[in-house]
Design goal:
Blueprint lengths: L2 E8 L6 H15 L4 E8 H7 L3 H17 L8 E4 L5 H10 L4 H5 L2 H12 L10 H16 L4 E3 L5 H18 L10 E3 L29 H9 L18 H9 L2 H12 L4 H27 L2 H30 L23 E6 L5 E6 L5 E5 L5 H13 L4 E5 L2 E6 L2 E5 L6 H16 L1
Parallel strand pairs: 1-2, 2-3, 4-5
Antiparallel strand pairs: 6-7, 7-8, 8-11, 9-10, 10-11
Bound molecules: tryptophan (TRP).
The site of tryptophan (TRP) has 12 residues, from strand 1 and helix 7.
Length: about 450
């Protein structure tokens, strides 16, 4: 089975070189691996939590979309969309809000940090805390669970959020799944090998330290940013401390091993810092030049970007819409018309008859349920290796003259050719069980 990889990029700000090396580039490389089914999206609902400037929100969405595409993300191969184009995400967020424990969210790092700051300042603990900030992890859980992502590449600060998504998903499964796992358990994926770039001052490159190198500024802007990299005061001709130089670290992050070895030798032999900066400029300008052109071309064609993202949303909603339909059914938000109840496939079924609903488990196996005309679950099948077997078994059940039903306490199982193929839910007592058996016989006889 393919591995579904999903990650969101909060659209507040302009991508810099640190984002490129730490997130964008590795994600694009990963998306090209065979067996990866990648979902990348602009987390623009999340951006609203931190930013109330509409122009900045809009600008950042445009810049980040253009950046990913310019860096080589293939929107045909992956699913690339804006969170705010998928109405199923906030809808699922509400379903999850209704099962997420408040106590769980009280423990979220970002919320706790805000409370600690308030308390330290002698303020009300929740001063300035919006429900958006508080519920941030639930929205993120909806992002992840709606697409049943197996792996979620994130920074360390987001691990807790992925764990919360597991918790919340499990709770939903437990409450509404009746043995079915609606949601798989997502795993945070921390890329150990990925570079954390030093910024101009040697601290981690970060917008909050104001020490970044712009990713797609002009060549001149790149040059002047590099000119600001802090170095020690060793003069031309003096051997440089290569290990302690973040200029060298930056160079090494983009150079081949041979190029790095060459620059190291030259620095040890006294190459001037100014000269080393020129080398770094040339290296980065080469690495980014082509993407930069692409980027500016895209930024100037916002209509084209819009089309790409709309196509991505369509692709994502092909999965999201039917799945959310099942989740709505599971919690009891069903049509009053029996003939309009949505089956797992999203298709309408004939009126007033029982129906088989097949689905696939997270482990790749195939199963089906038999639902009564009113949506009551009558049977849940065993796991089958392929869809064909599952289909054949459900057909056989419909055509068998005498059903092999075996009762066991308050439940029963169904057998075909000496093999157990399905089981009932657990009933309140044997009377309820026998009534269900009668309904099952009636349903299969139709
Ligand atoms: N919270 C993430 C961040 O700040 C962005 C994000 C939103 C995300 N939804 C997600 C990441 C779902 C992974 C999966 O980095």
């Amino acid at each position: 089975m393919t591995t579904r990889i999903l990650t969101g990029i909060t659209t507040s700000g302009t991508p810099h070189l640190g984002n490129y090396a730490g997130a964008i580039h590795p994600a694009i490389v990963a998306s090209r691996q065979s067996g990866a089914d990648s979902f990348y999206f602009l987390a623009d609902y999340h951006a609203l939590i931190k930013c109330d400037d509409p122009l900045r929100i809009q600008r950042s969405r445009l810049e980040i979309a253009a950046t990913w595409l310019a860096c080589g993300l293939d929107s045909q191969r992956v699913t690339f969309y804006r969170q705010s184009d998928i109405p199923e995400i906030p809808e699922l967020a509400w379903l999850l809000t209704c099962v997420a424990g408040k106590g769980l969210l009280n423990r979220a790092h970002a919320y706790k940090a805000a409370v600690d700051r308030n308390v330290a300042a002698g303020e009300d603990p929740d001063a300035g805390v919006t429900m958006g900030l508080y519920s941030y992890p639930v929205l993120m859980a909806a992002d992840i669970l709606l697409f049943n992502a197996h792996q979620v590449p994130v920074g360390r600060d987001q691990i807790q959020h992925v764990e919360m998504a597991r918790d919340i998903g499990q709770r939903f499964n437990h409450l509404f799944g009746h043995g079915r796992e609606f949601f798989v358990q997502p795993q945070a994926l921390i890329e150990e090998g990925v570079a954390t770039l030093p910024g101009l001052d040697g601290r981690k490159m970060s917008k909050s330290y104001d020490n970044t190198i712009p990713l797609f500024g002009s060549a001149q802007q790149l040059k002047s940013a590099i000119a600001q990299i802090v170095t020690d005061s060793r003069l031309p001709g003096e051997a440089k401390d290569v290990q302690g130089s973040h200029l060298f670290t930056l160079y090494q992050s983009f150079a081949t091993p041979a190029q790095s070895a060459e620059l190291r030798d030259q620095l040890l032999q006294g190459l001037a810092w100014g000269e080393a900066k020129q080398r770094l400029f040339e290296l980065l300008n080469d690495e980014l030049g082509e993407a930069r052109e692409q980027y500016h071309a895209l930024i100037n064609k916002p209509d084209e970007l819009e089309d790409i993202l709309q196509a991505g949303a369509l692709k994502a909603r092909k999965i999201a819409t039917p799945f959310l339909g099942e989740l709505r059914e599971a919690v009891g938000l069903r049509s009053f018309r029996a003939d309009q109840q949505v089956a797992a496939s999203g298709k309408k079924k004939a009126a007033k008859s029982a129906r088989f609903v097949s689905f696939r488990e997270a482990d790749g196996s195939f199963r089906f349920r038999l639902l009564g005309a009113d949506g009551e679950e009558l049977l849940l099948s065993e796991r089958f290796a392929d869809g064909k077997t599952a289909g054949q078994i459900s057909k056989q059940l419909q055509s068998s003259a005498a059903l092999d039903i075996r009762v066991q306490d308050d439940a029963f199982t169904l057998w075909l050719a000496a093999e157990e193929v399905a089981q009932s839910p657990l009933f309140a007592d044997t009377q309820a069980r026998d009534a269900a058996i009668a309904r099952l016989r009636a349903a299969l006889a139709v």
